[in-house]
Design a protein that fits this description.
Chain C: It comes from Ruegeria denitrificans. The complex is a heterotrimer of chains A (325), B (335) and C (300). Chain A is an alpha/beta fold. Chain A has helices at 46-54, 80-86, 98-101, 108-120, 124-137, 143-146, 156-167, 186-203, 214-220, 238-243, 248-255, 294-298, 316-320, and strands at 4-15, 18-30, 35-39, 61-64, 67-70, 73-74, 91-94, 174-178, 206-211, 223-228, 231-237. In chain A, strand 5 (67-70) and strand 6 (73-74) form a beta hairpin. Chain A is globular and about 65 Å long. The mean pLDDT of chain A is 86. Chain B has 335 residues and is an all-alpha fold. Chains B and C meet through helix 1, helix 6, helix 7, helix 11 and helix 12 of B and helix 5, helix 6, helix 9 and helix 11 of C.
Chain lengths: 325, 335, 300
């Protein structure tokens, strides 16, 4: 049994001009200790699907799923109270913006100890010791004095370390990191990624890494899932994905990596992810796909088997054969 | 924190000078000669007129007059009332406790009801309670309070006979003023029923004066809460698995209070403006009624002095709010 | 958004700005109700002489303090009864809408025009001018608005015109602050920089580039101060410092009726109700406007 099992997850938002489907039939499974990466551009619904899992979406969102289970417990079927016992304890999440993700009115020590008290019932002294231990673990220097500072008095990188310390405070089995390095300086990015990887090894937790950076994926992940406009378009082990991408979108993403550039100009993917008002009829990627033909524009493709990376494309075989690429 | 306080104080001084300048100018831009106005029907001799000109300093250059006025103000000299011949400063402080008592009661009424109402409405956004509460708040906000006072008098004093119509206490009680606050003085006097009478006199004016601040605080609390509830750190709090009551009552409210405190501070001006109407209707012997009466009596030194004192009070409260704001908002505190 | 819709196959059209505005506005039922009541109020004000059954100052000496039609002693000749001088309440109320509407319009126009211009200047002017303007506004704001209006009227002499001038002066600083604040936040945005780089003149930058983007909060504030102006003018009238009797201004009517509150409820109730309903309608509309114009509160 996998740690996390999501099948056919769909999230819709009620907006002024009708419903907007942000996540469209996404599957995801993560095993114990596994590192799964979800890749895609902004607006591809990667964060939304994880927020749905955590129950953090606003009231305008409607969530439907065939299955949304953690350790065999279906999260859609249990009460909010029971859910809160899992969320924050066994499943934890860190976010993109460390500066705004911490409450400005409380010290970071208060915010980290709060979780320890509620989930683990530690007393004052134990909480304090554990908090120092956690700060030490995530590499915050002088943890004792740092506990009394407010979030705005620290740098983004430090705040993200606090967020990570908070997330791992209760030794979660699954950690979801939503673009944890995007808002940080490049040098800090590597440190934070290393920290996450080290913590995963130490604690044996599953890690879902949401990112739009293929470079990060290559360095860290074991399995990769590519999402586009709310749909999963491909899923493969990381090595296979980089060697033999199945979906034209993945191909384009990889080609856009500076390391793979063959000419002086970096190749880009023209256009943007379709929004609420320009959703194409057929394949969602067709307006930006260089191989798209009339079939693509009229009929949405279905996912292929795992052998073909579960790619959602009419012409997977041809891409493999190199006929199109 | 100290630097922040100094900056605020630095802004206070020019504003204070500006306010004194406006109140100084007030008596000089009046149509007609204030000395003649003061003489009233009886008129006055040329000699007496000259004497008054000298006394009021109208014969000196304007800048000199302003300087003298400013020095006087700083020494607590606001001139003498044309009508009672008593110093304006003394009159002001004799009447101020009445206004202060009423304002404090109105503010307590407004905050005690408005803050919880706003929080509950925000948490239950879009539900029946929210809509009912916000509709009432909008009615309260739109209320002409002078009419609202009359309606309450019709119902509670006229039809039901529960509350008195005017004054601070029944005439049959008499005791010396110790603190100037009728609620405290009546208790100190030890006379049976005096405190109850004082409370009954306070109820309607408190409701009338507190209505608009109540509506404003409820609306502001709700919108501040709604804004805060959409912040990233609330998402973090929810991701930690905290209970809704802890998220709303601690994490969200603490942040939402920052703008709400500002609004509470700002409504002190509204409160004093409202006191003018409320005190006039309920014959409440405070600053508001004193000002209105003086305007009608053309008692210009009183109007001038009262205007200045009220503005200074509003400014002091704003300064206090700024300091308080610095204390509750850690982003400013630790700068 | 024009670039987006250039991508060919699309299934839904993005609604136009006006339609979107109306969508958000009409979603707020209170706002639509407010709009209708306000429309009725404007209609009353515009056609008051045609709608009023009698001359508002005509005294029917034999019908003094007659109750409304549905109460004993009332008659349909005076549907809302008569006042202590035997004047028809309904006619006076209808004529009164003119004064309130007039006060609202004049005050808002004067305060907005002055406030926006000063605010724009302040936002674009050198630091010291800006500081000076803001200090002056702080000084005006230190006085409770009604008190300052009262004193100004005491100087200028009690009349409706002077009340309007006083209220407009008192409201001005709000617009100055609001405009300046939005100007300062807009000025830093890239589109302003690009307009400047493209060589737009200062005046063009102020009025063509920046001002339209600052309008939303100003419009909302204008709606709200329309109602506050009506309230303040009525309060001044009530204190005897606004419109003078026998003008059928609602606040003045209330002041005249005060001594009869326990004897004739209608002379007190109706003018106040007229003020409340009008002010409430405008505030409802203002709330709807804010929700429709403020993208921050829009549902995403």
């Amino acid at each position: 049994m996998s740690l996390l099992d999501i099948r056919n997850l769909t999230v819709e938002f009620a907006t002024a001009s009708g419903k907007f489907r942000a996540v469209d039939g996404v599957d995801l499974s993560v095993d114990k200790g596994e590192l799964m990466a979800i890749v895609g551009e902004s607006g591809s619904g990667k964060s939304v699907s994880m927020l749905a899992l955590m129950g953090l979406l606003p009231w305008t969102a409607t969530i439907t799923a065939d299955q949304l289970s953690f350790e065999g417990i279906d999260l859609t079927k249990i009460s909010a109270r029971d859910r809160r016992k899992i969320i924050g304890k066994d499943i934890a999440m860190i976010f993109q913006e460390p500066m705004s993700s911490l409450n400005p009115c409380f010290t970071v020590g208060f915010q980290i100890k709060e979780a320890l008290r509620i989930h683990l019932g530690l007393n004052r002294k134990e909480r304090h010791e554990r908090a120092i231990e956690l700060f030490d673990q995530v590499g915050i220097p002088a943890p004792e004095s740092r506990l009394n500072t407010f979030p705005h008095q620290m740098s983004g990188g430090m705040n993200q370390r606090v967020m990570i310390a908070m997330a791992i405070a209760c030794k979660p089995k699954l950690l979801i990191a939503d673009e944890p390095t995007t808002a940080l300086d490049v040098t800090i990015q590597a440190q934070i990624l290393d920290l996450l990887l080290r913590l995963r090894d130490e604690q044996g937790m599953g890690l879902v890494l949401i990112t739009h950076d293929m470079g990060v994926v290559a360095e860290t992940a074991e399995r990769v899932q590519v999402q586009y406009a709310g749909q999963k378009v491909e899923e493969q082990p990381v090595k296979d994905l980089f060697r033999t991408p199945r979906h034209p979108y993945t191909v384009a993403l990889l080609n856009a990596l500076p390391e793979r550039a063959t000419s002086k100009l970096l190749p880009t993917i023209p256009g943007v992810v379709p929004g609420q008002f320009d959703r194409p009829k057929g394949c969602l990627f067709s307006p930006r796909c260089q191989y798209a033909d009339d079939l693509c524009r009229s009929l949405p493709p279905t996912p292929h088997s795992a052998e073909f990376g579960k790619a959602r494309c009419h012409y997977v075989e041809k891409i493999i054969a190199g006929e199109l690429a | 924190m100290f630097g922040y306080f100094l900056t605020r104080l630095g802004m206070f001084i020019p504003t204070f000078l500006g306010v004194t300048l406006i109140s100084f100018m007030f008596i000089r831009v009046l149509p007609g000669d204030p000395i003649i106005v003061m003489a009233g029907e009886r008129g006055m001799t040329e000699e007496r007129y000259q004497e008054m000109v000298e006394k009021l300093g109208f014969d000196k250059p304007v800048l000199q007059q302003y300087w003298d006025y400013l020095v006087g103000v700083l020494h607590g000299d606001l001139g003498e009332s044309f009508v009672t011949k008593k110093p304006v400063w003394d009159e002001f402080f004799a009447l101020f406790p009445a206004t202060l008592e009423l304002s404090i009661c109105a503010m307590i009424f407004a905050v005690a009801l408005g803050l919880p109402a706003g929080v509950i409405a925000a948490v239950n956004r879009g539900k029946f309670f929210d809509r009912a509460l916000m509709s009432s708040a909008l009615v309260g906000y739109s209320m002409p309070i002078f009419w609202w006072a009359l309606l309450l008098i019709i119902v509670f004093s006229g039809n039901l006979g529960w509350t008195p119509v005017s004054g601070r206490i029944d005439l049959l009680y008499y005791f010396p003023s110790v603190t100037g606050f009728m609620l405290i003085d009546s208790l100190l006097s030890g006379q049976a029923g005096a405190f109850g009478s004082a409370v009954r006199h306070l109820i309607l004016p408190t409701i009338v004066l507190g209505t608009i601040p109540l509506a404003v605080i409820a609306r502001q609390t709700r919108s501040a809460m709604l804004e805060v509830l959409g912040e990233d750190y609330i998402r973090t709090a929810r991701a930690k698995g905290l209970s809704p009551s802890r998220i709303n009552g601690l994490h969200a409210l603490r942040n939402a209070l920052i703008p709400v405190i500002t609004v509470i501070g700002l409504s002190v001006g509204t409160l004093l403006a409202g006191a003018i109407l409320t005190e006039t209707i309920f014959s409440w012997p405070g600053i508001g009624k004193w000002m209105v009466d003086s305007i009608f009596r053309r008692d210009y030194p009183v109007v001038q002095g009262g205007l200045l004192m009220i503005a200074v009070i509003v400014m002091l409260v704003n300064l206090l709010v700024d300091v308080l704001y610095g204390i509750i908002n850690p982003k400013i505190r630790r700068r | 958004m024009a670039e987006l819709s250039a991508i060919p196959p699309k299934t839904e059209d993005r609604p136009s700005a006006l339609r979107e505005f109306w969508y958000y506005f009409s979603e707020n039922r209170g706002a639509v109700m407010g709009l209708w009541v306000f429309a009725a109020f404007v209609f009353c004000a515009a056609f008051a002489p045609l709608l009023a059954p009698y001359d508002p100052t005509e005294q029917f000496r034999e019908h003094i303090l007659q109750p409304p039609a549905w109460q004993e002693g009332g008659s349909w000749a005076f549907p809302l009864g008569t006042d202590p001088l035997g004047r028809d309440m309904l006619s006076r109320l209808i004529m009164g809408s003119r004064y309130s509407f007039f006060v609202g319009i004049v005050v808002v126009c004067v305060a907005v025009t002055g406030g926006v211009i000063i605010g724009l200047l302040s936002g674009f002017a050198p630091k010291w001018i800006d500081t000076m303007i803001m200090r002056v506004m702080d000084i005006i704001l230190s006085f409770p608005s009604l008190l300052l209006a009262l004193v100004l009227v005491a100087i200028l002499g009690p009349s409706l015109t002077n009340a309007m001038i006083a209220i407009a002066i008192v409201f001005q600083p709000h617009y100055v602050r609001l405009t300046r604040a939005s100007v300062l936040s807009e000025r830093q945005k890239d589109y302003v920089t690009s307009a400047r780089v493209a060589g737009a003149s200062k005046a063009r930058l102020m009025f063509k580039t920046v001002l339209p983007n600052c309008l939303a909060p100003i419009i909302v504030q204008a709606a709200l101060s329309f109602s506050t102006a009506i309230l303040d003018a009525a309060a001044l009238g009530f204190l005897g410092m606004g419109a003078q009797p026998p003008t059928p201004e609602w606040g003045t009517m209330l002041a005249e009726a005060r001594e009869f509150i326990l004897r004739a409820w209608w002379v007190v109730t109706f003018p106040g109700l007229a003020i409340l309903v009008t002010v409430l309608a405008i505030n409802l509309m203002g709330d709807g406007l804010r929700d429709a114009l403020d993208p921050k509160l829009k549902r995403s």
